[in-house]
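Same chain as my last thread, 1005 residues:
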Amino acid sequence: MAFLFAGNKCLLFLVVPLHAFLLFSATSAAIAAALDNSTDLSSLLAFKAASTSGGDASSDNIITANWTTDAPFCTWVGVGCSRRRPRVVSLNLSSFSLQGTISPHLSNLSFLSSLDLFNNALSGTIPDTLGRLPRLATLILHRNLLSGPIPPSLFNMSSLVRIGLSFNNLSGSLPTLVMLPRIEYISITDNLLTGHIPTDLVRCSTLQRIYLGTNRLTGSVPSSLGNLSELVDMTLGGNQFTGVIPASLGNLTKLQYLFLGINDLEGEIPKEIGNLVNLQKLYLHKNAIAGSIPISLWNASNMIHLEVSANNLTGPVPATLGKSMPFLQFLGMSDNALSGGLDFIASLTNCRDLNVFEVVGNQFEGALPEYAYGNLSMNLQYFAVSNNNISERIPTGLGNLSSMISLALDFNELRGTIPMTLWTLKKLQVMYLGFTRLTGSIPSDIGQMTNLATISFVENEFSGQIPDSVGNVSGLQILELAENKLSSSIPSSLWSLQGLVHLNLFQNRFEGLLPPQVAKLKVIDSISLRSNRLSSNIFSALGELQSITHLDLSNNSFHGQIPQQLGRLFNVEYLNLSHNFLSGVIPKSFSNLSYVSSLDLSFNMLEGEIPEGKAFSNVSTTNLIENRALCGAPQLQFPPCPTKFTTSTSSAKLRLLKYVLPSVASVLVFLACFALFVKKFMRKKAKASSEEESPCLNYHRRIPYFELVRATDNFNEANLIGRGSIGKVYKGSLDDGLLVAVKVLNLEVEGASRSFDVECRTLGQVRHRNLVKIISTCSNLEFKALVLEFMPNQSLDKWLYSENQCLTLLQRINIMLDVSLGLDYLHHQHPHVIVHCDLKPSNILLDENMVAKISDFGIAKLMFVDNNSTTPTINIGTVGYMAPEYGSTGGVTIRGDVYSFGILLLELVTGKKPVGTMFSGELNLRQWVCNAYPTAVMEIVDSNILRTEFTNMQQHSDGANIFHRCLYSIIEVGLHCSKDLPNKRLLMRDVVPKLQEIKNGVLVN
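reply #2:
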């Protein structure tokens, strides 16, 4: 019995597995039958339906046109099939401008081994079902808009070799259970992950590359990572890791790339890091690491890039550095407390590919070794030893570094003159020699350095004059010569530097005048001429510096009155005219300075009433004291202004008026009646040549009808330069030679007369550099025309969509800024709020200098109410640019203009019309840009921008990054301005400084 029982038991052990195997085989057969190639077809079609394609025309039709049942799916673009059977094994749709979501039906592609959806605009979550793909080895989802947590199932796939989820919006923590026995590559950088690095990661013994940087991970760097012996690259930077660097990382002898920078790590650099003999790039910057650099680190003889800046490192740098690391290209040790001499520079002559040398902000002392520079790498472009204790002279050998782009020696104890050899560095763009003790003069040879963008010689002992040749440095953007002993007059050639952004000459001995030519500095942001010996009047041309935010003319000898035109400095934030000899009254136009936060007019000879307005709402008494006789502003404790008439004088004049006024009134009434009679008579007699006086002609020149006929050659079609819905625009030359644009209205069109009245009234009340100026009108019963300033470069619309014309990125930024300044004036600076209502490229005109001006105020709204009030209207604006609320509420606000401006920004970047053929249904220009922002921006950028900026990106090492940041910033402003809800949009007063900052960022870089 026992034997039988034992036999039955053995039989049972055989039967059960056999039964399970047969059941599994039957199930597998059923699954295989069900999940055949027809299942693959339905899965692909489900993916196509979920991830609709967008982008340019070519991408738009790739999936739609190609993925059809008219052809086998194995021939579809991006689909790869097995050689033995028609089953999908790979799906590669990278950079196809896909949008929508990732279909969970992809999990039915049971033979799929590679899924690559890199660089699309897919959103939503990652389907958990992808973890069920039994053969999936590669999963690449970089650069999409995916959100939500990472499905735990993805980290439990025995077949997975590569997983890439970087540059998305994934959140949550990393899955704690990690069962990836074949994994070699994990990349999840630039997401929103939190929590700790899972301890199970140590099980991934085959892992070669792991990238977890730029997230929000916390905790310590696990010492168990030292057991991943196959690691070649590891990036954990840009997180919030604390604690010390584990010494166990020294076990990773295959490691070539280690990025632990931008965290909160502390302690010392472990000496075990010196065991990483294959290490080529080490980033430990922006932590709180202390102590000295371990000697063992210099054993890393293959090092190419060493970055330990912004820590608390101390001690000297060994003199044999260059011999220990002969392949070094980048050495960054700035912002520490390193000390000793700079003798190790001599050893860098062994580093034949050295490109960057930065040791700024340490405690190095002694002299720069004179003998080294002739043998340093000819590839050296950045040499920075600022903010140390370096003394003696600047070595003449620095002039041998012919590839130098940036030289920074400021904040040291240097003496002597600038070696003449430095003026031979033709490629030099940045020269920082300020806050030292240099002497001598600035030689005329500076004019040969045409690539210089920044010259900073602040707080030295330079004497003599600024050489006139400085005007040859055409690319100069920043000139800082403050706190020296420079004298004579400021050279006139300086005002020809139209790219100049910052000019700082304060505390020198300059004399003479500030000429009107200063108005040529169209992009200037800051001028400081404080504490010099400048004299004469302040010219009104200074008011043309529309971009300036900082103007300091204090402590000079300027005299005369303050020009009213300074009230046109709409962007100025700091204005100091104190300690001069200015007289007269404070211009009332200063009330227009809505951004000014610091205004100082003290210690002058001013008198009269202190104006009201924002500029004076926050000003302190000390900024107005020591003047002749200012009055008003009781909040500043100034005396009230005296009345113009005494009581006795007023009484006498009132008695006189009692008898004289009735007589005068009778005469005026008679004259008025007579004038009306004559006017009526003349109109009947010569209707064609008589004009009605328009309400906006009080201060415009009068132009007779027949002069307009002569100017346009009887409105010849050859002079036609524009055609609109209610009339035509002709180019004309008046009798005095002035070129004008004559806008003739077709009075048969309904609403034309009203449009004429609106535009005439609006333009008659506005004055701004970025609004088209009205010169005159001509109006009678049968003819109405506006005479406007002529804009030789026509409309923005023609520049955007012309085959022969192309706008650079900087030109587009300038145009955006010009339009924003014009709208800011209409919305916030004019006494009455004006809403344009029809902002679009055809209504943006460009003058001979490509300055943009807003035109066509035919349906503008003049509102005597607050900025958020609405005015009922119908048929406002142009489809595509018209704010959504116009159709629903019929109301007009300034935020409708902001919406149109936002669409205009997006159009300038993409080169796409908002009513183009590619936009239909719910997809519009804004939605299309939203889908691409921020991961696929480069795919929607106007190809003309890419073509014009290609050279700049090639010539500058970080040109592409600057270019990308600029585009992202512009698109961000455009999307913010064009939000659906009006109260969520920016106001133009907030848009202007943002665009100014974007422009300055491009210019400075």
